[in-house]
Amino acid sequence: MAQEEGGSLSQVRARVGASHGITDLAQKLRFYDRWASDYDQDVAALQYRAPNLAVECLTQALPGPPHAALILDVACGTGLVAAELQARGFLQLHGVDGSSGMLEQARARGLYQRLSLCTLGQEPLPSPEGTYDAVLMVGALSDGQVPCSAIPELLRVTKPGGLVCLTTRTNPSNLQYKEALEATLDKLEQAREWERLVAWPVDRWELATTKLEAVPGTSDSGGFISGIVYLYRKRQVAQVEAVRPSAQPLTGL
Q1: Nearest CA to 80 among 120, 51, 102?
Q2: Coil, strand or helix: which one is 224?
Q3: Beta-carbon neighbour count of residue 55 at 10 Å?
Q4: Could you tell me the residue ranges of all domains in the chain?
Q5: Could you give the dihedral angle defined by the CA atoms of residues 71, 53, 172 and 118, in that order, rounded to the nearest 10 degrees?
């Protein structure tokens, strides 16, 4: 039995490692379509914690009762984030993903009021400006998935004063992407589009697919990779206007 479980985990590690290695978006979406039916059990085997960590971070910062908040789950996959949200009382959930196979699994959960096929980075989100109290994107910020250039689109659909929660892996193979991501996040903060509330590094993100990716000392059996949760608040219009020169009153009319 232990050998069967070990063999299964080895297969899962190989499958997840293969997904991490795909940098072409079209190829990665086809991979996710094929993976969709096994995705939940695979990431559970790897003790994938990002959905739980991101929703916990958001819940602590979001004002007002959870049931009143309208939430967008970007790159929603099979709906793991929605399950975490519902467990904390969030009921108004919209989701988008670029994989039709993943959306089929998400739809089967029955947790989203609206699901849309959307490949962020190639097309805009299907929502008007300032729609959502909070936007999450969990597990999709890496090479071959959502490009850093798409981050402002998340801000566009967030209400002024609303929250944006993001995650990415910080294992060695994703560090170049993380560096570019943080440059994008910092640029938006310098432009006073949002303010950072949280940058939460986590050592035990999920089981590593190879020992080379593992955080030293996290386990004797392959170890864990690390990750990070970011939380930002979109600035209110009044906050942005306050940094601009005030208009002088008109006289002599």
Answers
A1: 51
A2: strand
A3: 27
A4: 10-211+221-234
A5: -20
Q: How far is CA 131 from CA 128, 135, 150, 222, in A?
A: 6, 10, 17, 43
Opening angle at CA 102, ends 57 and 53, nearest 5: 15
Render 86-98 in DSSP notation, one character per residue: HHTT--EEEEEES
pLDDT in tens, 125-163: 999 999 999 999 999 999 889 999 999 999 999 999 999
pLDDT tens-digit readout, 187-230: 999 999 999 999 999 999 999 988 888 887 765 456 999 999 99
Sequence-separated (6 or more) residues with CB below 8 Å from residue 154: 74, 125, 135, 137, 164, 166
Evaluate the CA torsion angle 88, 131, 51, 184 in order and state its sign: negative
- Comparing 9 with 227, which gets the higher pLDDT? 227
Strand-pair partners of 72? 94, 135
CATH number of this structure's domain 10-211+221-234: 3.40.50.150
Q: What pTM did the predictor assign?
A: 0.89
So what's the pLDDT on residue 49?
A: 98
Q: Quick one: tokens of 51? A: 């959905």
